[in-house]
Each structure stands twice: as C-alpha cells, then as structure tokens.
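By way of example, what follows is a protein record of this kind.
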Amino acid sequence: MTRTASNPSHALDGTYRTGEYDKNGSKLQEPRNILTPEEEAKIRQKVCAFYIKACPEQPNTTPEVLFNLKGKAAGQWRLRNGHEQLRFNPEAFLQDWDAHFPETVAHEVAHSLVYRTFGLRRVRPHGPEWRSWMEAFECEPRVTHSTPLKGRSVRTYTYRCACQTHALSARRHYLIQRRRYRYECLECGQRLRREK
C-alpha cells in the first residue's frame, strides 16, 4: 500500500527528512561539521605516538597539527617557511572515523618522516620510503581514500566557440585575460571567446 505525504517535509517512509523535528516530535540535531575537542586530542595523541615510535630518542619533535583542510583530501603534510604542518580534513573523520583513524594520520606522519630522512631530494611521494613507514606503523599503505567528500566549489567562466559552450576554470580565464593565452575548441577548432 502506498502512502502519500500530507506534510511536504514528511517522507514516504515515515521519517522527516527536511523538517526540524523527527517523527516523534524531538528536535533534530544539526549534522556536525567540526571535530570535538576529544576527537582532535585523540588525533594529536596518535600523531605523537607515531613520532615516538619512529624517533624514540626525540619524542617532542611533532609538527603543528591543524584541522582546517577542506576539499577532497583527508590529510596533508606541508612545509611552510621551514616549519612542518600536518593538516586534517574534519569532514573525512566525521563521515568515516574508522577509515581515517589511524590510517590518514599515519599517512601524513610518514610523509613528514620521509622529508626528515631525505630532505627535499627527489623521493617519490608514495614511494618505497613512504611505504616502509606505513608498514612500520602497521597501516595499509593506501594512497587514496574512498570517503565521498565535498570538493571545494570552483568558479567557472563561460566561453563559446562555433559549436558549444565551454566552462573554463578561473586559472584558464586569468591566463586568457592577463597573459593573452588562446584556447581553441577541440571539436570545431575555433578560438574560445568569453560569453558576456
């Protein structure tokens, strides 16, 4: 038997999807978009544990840990002005804690340790050096994750040719406007022109 919803916020399966209250009249909780202080502390503790395991003689050498990464990456190791940073995407941990803790943490610490061992020499980012640290941390040496994260919204600019409309990135738009680059359509060969 099919049931129709009299209330537009009431779904056919008997639950409220877009309303403020669930079917029992209880207030719905907003989905979290930041980690709790306890979750952040747990990640920081794991970072410290990995560094202690890797360098027991230098236990206080952990870089700055930030939770401000956005986009599709779950984590990032970076070097800024000679200082290391480990950045983590809270959305990844909120969506699937078990998939990212401790693997994503180990992934970024391994990048740091490769840098500390080899410097900025040409070492493949996920090469054997990185893999050996992942194995030392007893984590799967995976390069990518499968958590569906929202990517950053990218601004596009509309350009036309004789046969179609093209959405160009902000970078390509800049190159056309400021650097006099020229792009042609692969289909018709005509030069792309900005649509007003």
Remarks:
- The chain has a mean pLDDT of 85.
- The radius of gyration is 24 Å.
